[in-house]
């Protein structure tokens, strides 16, 4: 339709695939503080985001893995 009317057209795309997997925890906490979320809530969310996890295979625990990016879904 734009071509028929000799009008310019602009198309923009945004790929959000894996967006939640790549958000740094520090950026989330910083955004909460910047938006004046109360400090107790920021602390709670920060504690939920941080922590160490590990892989377990046949009852044997692997080395600890620190996760710094991504949010719980």
UniProtKB/TrEMBL annotation:
Residues annotated as domain Reverse transcriptase: 1-73
Any matching Pfam family: RVT_1
PROSITE patterns linked: RT_POL
This protein's name: Reverse transcriptase domain-containing protein
Species of the source: Trichinella britovi (Parasitic roundworm)
Native organism taxonomy: Eukaryota, Metazoa, Ecdysozoa, Nematoda, Enoplea
